């Protein structure tokens, strides 16, 4: 998504996240002291939908 202009309204954070997920995007977890975690609004994406990078 490169512009809000493609929406007929100002999209919510959930709508933007859902759109990205539908287009094949997946969050990449950060390696933190307490284990891998996705930060920010994408933290609500279940871990089985994360993209793991070596």
Overview of this structure, please?
The protein is α+β, with helices and mostly antiparallel strands and 54 residues long. 19% of the residues lie in helices and 11% in strands. The protein has one helix and two strands, in the order H-E-E. Strands 1-2 form a two-stranded antiparallel ribbon. A hairpin with a 2-residue loop joins strand 1 (30-32) and strand 2 (35-37). It is elongated, with a radius of gyration of 13 Å. The mean pLDDT is 90.
Which sheet architecture does the biggest sheet show? 2 strands, antiparallel
Tally of separate helices:
1
Give the neighbour order of strands across the main sheet: 1-2
Order of helices and strands: HEE
Mean pLDDT equals 90
Binned, the helix content reads 10-25%
Supply Rg.
13 Å
Poorly predicted segments: none
General shape: elongated
Task: Fill in the keyword field for this structure.
54 residues; alpha+beta; 2 strands
State the gist of this model.
The chain has 54 residues and is of the alpha+beta class. It has 1 helix and 2 strands.
Summarize the SSE layout with pairings.
Blueprint: H1 13-22, E1 30-32, E2 35-37
Antiparallel strand pairs: 1-2
